[in-house]
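DM from R.C. (forwarded with permission)

"hey, sorry to bug you on a friday — could you get me a structure for this? deadline for the figure draft is monday and I only need the backbone to look sensible"
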Amino acid sequence: MSTIELLPLIKAPASWPVPVVATVAMLGLATLDLVGAVAAKQWVEHRGGPALAVGLGAFVLLWWVYASSLQYAELAVVTLGWVVVLQVGLVLVDRFRYAVEMPPGKWVAIGVVLAAQAYLLLAPSGTSGGTS
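My reply, with the result:
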């Protein structure tokens, strides 16, 4: 039995356009990464087995979702979107869970980065430059 048979890639509904699939993948990746990051912080602070298990599980799922998302969207777009959404999530966790204050300029910068990511995701892509 091959690895593919043990763990098949996740398939998106055929009716979903690529930008929707890419966005869902980015949000899923960021969520899994955020869960893993918070679990790692909890494990460092409390050395609890459950936090370690949650973190390991989150990162295994993250890898599977990442590999699956590359069937539908470009590597750079998915990766950049995932990182941008993750950074926003981490800023929000710091703000609301750990009471870290940020100046308004940093919130504006986050808005600019999100707008740039939306452009990268939704703007028409160039053709790939493969060799014939």
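R.C.: lifesaver. Residues 16 and 65 are 17 Å apart (CA to CA).
me: no worries. Residues 18-46 form the longest helix (29 residues).
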